[in-house]
Amino acid sequence: MKAKFFYPFVLLLIVSACSDPQAKARKSIEAYLQTKLNDPKSYEFVSIDSLKPITRADSLLGAQLDEELAVMNSFDYDKEKHRLNVLYDYSIPAAEYENMGKKLADVQARDSAVKVKYTKLITPETKTVTTGYHVKMKFRSKNGMGALTLGEYNFTLDNNFAVLNASSTKD
What we know:
Blueprint: H1 2-18, H2 21-36, E1 39-48, E2 52-55, H3 60-74, H4 77-89, H5 94-121, E3 130-142, E4 148-158, E5 163-168
Antiparallel strand pairs: 1-3, 2-3, 3-4, 4-5
Helix pairs in contact: 4-5
């Protein structure tokens, strides 16, 4: 009778442990470390900090788009058109003036398209979408000389907890 209740409880415990993001991160990092350590058998877990989510706004793409948008918003097309007219008054060849005007119009059209794409891609709602995680983990393992050393690394994980980057905190 006890076995009847014991096995479903154990199964539930295993399933709930696997769905914990912290546990998934640790498991993924440990698998990554097994391929990178000099002596994978010497690996000893020490500690792992809590996961810090990376949002789309924090990601490199979001930062690049924010920077591009700031540059585009600071560009004064009317001022550039005025400069072209001043240059025209100083008798630039007409073909060169028209070519410069076309380039300015092309830049303005491209910037408008990027702004539209940006506003669709990065909205207040999507800025909070989690794209990955940062976590710091400490572990012991043997180095190339066979000495047990403490490793302290920052890991960047994607949404599926695959390791994207690992960097030592001591560097």
